[in-house]
Design brief:
Blueprint (H helix, E strand, L loop, with lengths): L1 H8 L3 H6 L2 H38 L14 H13 L8 H12 L1 H4 L19 H7 L12 E9 L2 E8 L5 H20 L7 H28 L7 H7 L9 H19 L10 H5 L4 H33 L10 H21 L6 H11 L5 H17 L4 H16 L6 H5 L27 H7 L2 H21 L4 H25 L6 H11 L8 H14 L4 H16 L10 H10 L12 H13 L7 H15 L4 H17 L36 H5 L5 H11 L12 H4 L3 H7 L31 H12 L10 H8 L1
Antiparallel strand pairs: 1-2
Helix pairs in contact: 9-10, 9-11, 11-14, 13-14, 14-15, 14-16, 15-17, 17-21, 21-22, 22-24, 23-24, 24-25, 24-26, 26-28, 27-28, 28-30, 28-32
Length: about 800
C-alpha cells in the first residue's frame, strides 16, 4: 500500500508533460519566494543577535537628572561608523559564531551592570535604596544634549533592579535640512512673487466673469435635462451639487440660481402621477429595456427631488437658528435671502405638484412659516395656500393642509396670525355630504344584463349595445375622473375640521385677534353648518355682540353669520332675529367714512340677506327706517360707498313698493320721526322724507348724481328717469368694487378741457391800455411821503 501511495504522489513523466506552462511557472515562483523568505528570516536573526551583543557591551545606566535630553550628534555618527566597521556574521568562523550564539542565550551575563562592584549572587540589602546606586555612579560632564529616551518597565535581576530605556526614533538630519531648504526656497518664491491686491473695480469684473461661467454651466445642465430627462437624469445630481458652492464671491447668487433652476426643472419633468417604490417581487422579475429605463428614471427623479427638498429645509433651518457654518462661505445676512428663495420655491412646488411625492412634507414645512415673524415669508406662504385651495377641485390636497393648520393653531394655543385662518375662505366647498342623501349620490350606472338584452333588443341592436358599453367603459378609464361621492366625502371631512377649529376659538379664545377671521369664515360656510348647532351658535353670537368687546366690523360679521344661518337650513327654526336687525340699524352710523371704506361691503351683504331675501318676514316700518338711514349715510361716505348704498336703496324700493311715500313731503300718520332712536320699528320713519336725495343730486361724482335723480323720480325701470343697463343690472357689491378709488383714480375719468389755441400771445405791458401804463409810471416815480395816521377826525364826523 505504501509503494502505491508513493507512486501516486510522484508524478510520472507523461503527467509532467501534460502539466500546463502556467502551473510550472507558479511552482517556480513559489519556490523562489520560499527561498527569499527563509533568507530574510536568517538575516533578521543575525541582525538581532549582533544588536544584542553591541547593547550588552555599551550599556550604561542613565542618570535621572535629565533623562529626556537628546544625546550629542557626534555619538550618533560614531555609532554609525562602528556599525559600518562591524564584521558581518557571514565572514566569521563556525566556532566563533557558535560562541556568540551561546553568549547571546546567556542574557544574565550580557545584560548585567558591569560598572557595579557587587558580586552576581549578592543578596539585596533592605536598607539600600535605588537612588544610592545612582549616587555611586561616577558623573560625567555633558558637553552636548543626549538623545531623548523613553523609559520602559525595569527588569529585576540577581544584582537588583535594572532600568530599561529605549531611544526615541530620530528623524534623519539630512531630510530635515532638505525640508528646511525647500521651505526657504518656497518663502523666497512667495517673497519674489507677491499676490497682487485687486481694486474694487477689478474684483467686480472678476466676480462678473465667474458668475457668467456659473450661469452658463447651470443653463447647459438644465437644457440637457429638459431635452432628454430619461438619459440625463444623473445631471440633476451634478446641478444639485452646485447648491454647495464654496466660492465666497459668487456662492449666494449661484445657490439662488440653482434653487430656482431646479424648481423649474422639477415642475417640467415631473410626471402627472405619484411614483411608488417597487416591491421585492417587481424588482426580481425580468423586464424589457424600456421598462427598466423608465424605472431608473423614476427612481433617480424621486431621490433627487427628496434631496432637493432636504436642502431647502436645511437652508430655512440655518436662517432660523442663525448659526454660522464652519466653511464661512455664506454670511449671516445672506441667510435670509437664501431662505426667502427656498421658501418661494417650496410654495411654487406646493401649488404646482399637489399630486407628486412628498407633498405632505412640503405642507408640514410651509404651515409653520405662515405664522413667521417675517411678513414677507408669512404672506408668501399664505398666498400659496390660498392658491392651492382655489385650484384644488377634488379636495385631497386641501384636506391635508387643513389638518396641519388646525393642529398647529391648537398646538400654539390659538396665538397665531389671523391670516392663517383667513386662508380658509378660499376653500372650494359648496356642497357637503348629508346623511340621509348618501345612498342617492352618484349611483353607478348599471349595464343591461344579457337576458334583458335578449328580450328587448334584436341581434343587431345587441351588437351595437355591446360596442357602446365597451366604449363607455374605456372612456371612464381614460378620464379617470373621481366620483362625486369621494369628492363630497373629502369636502365634508375638510369642513368638519374647519368648524371644529372655529368653534374652539369661539369657546376658548373669544378675545383673540382670530375672532374676526372666525366670524368671517362662519358667515361664508354658515349654510353648510349642521342644524343641531344653530341654537347654540346664535346664542354665542348674540352674547358676543352684547358684550361690547367687539369692534363694529366684528359685530357686523356676527350679524352676517346669524342671517346666513337663518337664510339656509335655519328657515325651519322658529327664531326671532329682531335683536340682530336692531344691532345693524345701530351700527350703520359707525361705519368708517374714510379711504379704507371698512365695513361697507359687509353692510351691503347683510342688507341683501336681511331685507331682500327675507322680504316676507320684514315689516314696512323696518324697511322705511332702513331706507331713511341709508340715504343719510350716503351723504358722509366716499363715492363708491354712496353708489353701493343708493343701489341697495333702489332694490329696497322695488322690493317694498309702499316705501315711495318717503318721496312725498306730507307726513303720514301720527308721531314725529325720531332719527336718534335705535329701534327701527318705533322711530316713525313714515313721517319723514328723503331730502338727502336732493343734496346728492349736486354731488361731484356723476354716477351718484344719476342714482339720486333716478330715486327722486321713483326708481322707474323705463323712461327718461331709468338707469342705463350697465348700472341697473349690476348688484350693489359689484358697483361698490367697480367705482373703488383704492388706486387713487377717479372713475369715470375726468374730461380734460383743451384751451383754444391763439395765433399770437401777448406778453408784459401789451396786455394794458396806454393811458393806464402812463398813470402807473407817474405814481411809481413819485416819492412817498410819510404822514401820521389820524383816525379821530373820521370818528368825530361819524359821531356827528
Amino acid at each position: 500500500m505504501k509503494a502505491r501511495r508513493n507512486k501516486k504522489q510522484i508524478p510520472s513523466f507523461r503527467k509532467l508533460i501534460k502539466t500546463s506552462k502556467v502551473k510550472l511557472e507558479n511552482k517556480l515562483k513559489n519556490k523562489q519566494f520560499k527561498q527569499q523568505s527563509t533568507l530574510k528570516k536568517y538575516r533578521k536573526e543575525q541582525r538581532k543577535l549582533r544588536q544584542a551583543v553591541k547593547d550588552a557591551v555599551s550599556k550604561k545606566p542613565i542618570p535621572l537628572e535629565n533623562p529626556k535630553e537628546k544625546r550629542p550628534g557626534k555619538r550618533i555618527e560614531r555609532e554609525e561608523e562602528e556599525e559600518e566597521e562591524a564584521l558581518p556574521l557571514d565572514m566569521m568562523d563556525e566556532d566563533d559564531l557558535q560562541l556568540m550564539k551561546d553568549l547571546g542565550q546567556r542574557a544574565s551575563f550580557l545584560t548585567r551592570d558591569l560598572s557595579s562592584s557587587e558580586p552576581v549572587h549578592a543578596k539585596k540589602r533592605k536598607h539600600e535604596r535605588i537612588i544610592d546606586k545612582y549616587e555611586k555612579i561616577p558623573r560625567t560632564l555633558q558637553t552636548a544634549p543626549e538623545k531623548e529616551l523613553i523609559h520602559l518597565l525595569p527588569i529585576k535581576d540577581k544584582s537588583g533592579i535594572i532600568p530599561q530605556t529605549r531611544e526615541k526614533p530620530v528623524t534623519d538630519s539630512n531630510k530635515d535640512e532638505e525640508d528646511q531648504e525647500e521651505e526657504r526656497e518656497l518663502e523666497e518664491e512667495i517673497i519674489e512673487d507677491p499676490i497682487q491686491e485687486l481694486t474694487i473695480e477689478e474684483h467686480l469684473i472678476e466676480r462678473k466673469k465667474k458668475l457668467q461661467e456659473k450661469k452658463m454651466h447651470i443653463a447647459a445642465l438644465a437644457s440637457a435635462i429638459l431635452s432628454d430627462p430619461e438619459n440625463n437624469i444623473k445631471k440633476l445630481k451634478e446641478l444639485r451639487s452646485m447648491l454647495m458652492e464654496q466660492d465666497p464671491d459668487v456662492a449666494v447668487t449661484v445657490r439662488k440660481l440653482v434653487i430656482v433652476s431646479l424648481m423649474e426643472l422639477f415642475k417640467d419633468i415631473t410626471p402627472s402621477y405619484k411614483i411608488r417604490p417597487l416591491t421585492e417581487a417587481e424588482k426580481s422579475t425580468k423586464t424589457r429595456k424600456e421598462t427598466q429605463k423608465l424605472r431608473e428614471f423614476e427612481e433617480g427623479l424621486v431621490s433627487q427631488y427628496k434631496f432637493y427638498l432636504e436642502n431647502l429645509e436645511q437652508m430655512v433651518k440655518d436662517w432660523k437658528q442663525r448659526k454660522l457654518k464652519k466653511s464661512n462661505v455664506v454670511s449671516l445676512k445672506a441667510y435670509k435671502g437664501l431662505a426667502e428663495v427656498a421658501v418661494k420655491s417650496l410654495c411654487e412646488l406646493l401649488v404646482a405638484l399637489p399630486h407628486f411625492n412628498f407633498h405632505n412634507n412640503i405642507i408640514v414645512l410651509i404651515v409653520p412659516l405662515m405664522n413667521d415673524m417675517s411678513k414677507l415669508i408669512s404672506e408668501m406662504c399664505c398666498e400659496a395656500v390660498k392658491k392651492l385651495f382655489k385650484q384644488d377641485k377634488l379636495g385631497q390636497a386641501s384636506l391635508g393642509v387643513i389638518k396641519v393648520i388646525s393642529g398647529f393653531v391648537k398646538g400654539r394655543n390659538y396665538e397665531v396670525r389671523p391670516e392663517m385662518l383667513k386662508t380658509f375662505l378660499c376653500l372650494r366647498i359648496k356642497e357637503v355630504e348629508v346623511k340621509k342623501d348618501t345612498e342617492d349620490i352618484n349611483k353607478p350606472k348599471k349595464f343591461m344584463a344579457f337576458k334583458e338584452k335578449r328580450k328587448s333588443l334584436s341581434r343587431m341592436q345587441r351588437k351595437w349595445k355591446k360596442a357602446e358599453e365597451k366604449l363607455e367603459r374605456e372612456l371612464r378609464e381614460a378620464e379617470a375622473s373621481e366620483s362625486t361621492e369621494k369628492k363630497l366625502k373629502l369636502h365634508t371631512e375638510t369642513l368638519n375640521i374647519v368648524f371644529v377649529t372655529y368653534f374652539r376659538i369661539l369657546k376658548k379664545a373669544q378675545r383673540s385677534p382670530l375672532l374676526p377671521a372666525v366670524l368671517e369664515g362662519l358667515a361664508k360656510f354658515a349654510h353648510l353648518i349642521n342644524v343641531e348647532f344653530f341654537d347654540d351658535l346664535l346664542v354665542v353670537l348674540h352674547t358676543l355682540i352684547e358684550s361690547g368687546d367687539l369692534s363694529y366690523q366684528e359685530s357686523l360679521h356676527c350679524v352676517q353669520t346669524a342671517f346666513h344661518i337663518l337664510s339656509g337650513q335655519g328657515d325651519v327654526l322658529n327664531i326671532d332675529p329682531m335683536k340682530f336687525y336692531t344691532h345693524l340699524y345701530k351700527t350703520l352710523f359707525k361705519l368708517h367714512a374714510g379711504a379704507t371704506n371698512e365695513g361697507v361691503e359687509i353692510v351691503l351683504q347683510c342688507l341683501d340677506v336681511m331685507l331682500t331675501k327675507r322680504r316676507k318676514q320684514v315689516s314696512q316700518q323696518r324697511a322705511l327706517a332702513f331706507i331713511k338711514r341709508l340715504c343719510t349715510l350716503a351723504l358722509h361716505v366716499l363715492p363708491n360707498s354712496s353708489i353701493g348704498i343708493l343701489a341697495t336703496t333702489r332694490i329696497l324700493m322695488h322690493t317694498f313698493p309702499k316705501t315711495d311715500l318717503l318721496l312725498d313731503s306730507e307726513s303720514q300718520g301720527s308721531g314725529v320721526f325720531l332719527p336718534e332712536l335705535d329701534e327701527p320699528e318705533y322711530c316713525n320713519a313714515q313721517n319723514t322724507a328723503l331730502w338727502e336725495l336732493h343734496a346728492l343730486r349736486r354731488h361731484y361724482h356723476p354716477i351718484v348724481q344719476r342714482f339720486a335723480a333716478h330715486l327722486i323720480a321713483g326708481a322707474p325701470s323705463e323712461g327718461s328717469g331709468a338707469l342705463k343697463p350697465e348700472l341697473s343690472r349690476r348688484s350693489a357689491t359689484e358697483l361698490f368694487e367697480a367705482y373703488s378709488m383704492a388706486e387713487m383714480t377717479f372713475n369715470p375719468p375726468v374730461e380734460s378741457s383743451n384751451p383754444k389755441i391763439k395765433g399770437k400771445f401777448l406778453q408784459g405791458d401789451s396786455f394794458l391800455n396806454e393811458d393806464l401804463n402812463q398813470l402807473i409810471k407817474r405814481y411809481s416815480s413819485e416819492v412817498a411821503t410819510e404822514s401820521p395816521l389820524d383816525f379821530t377826525k373820521y370818528l368825530k364826523t361819524s359821531l356827528h
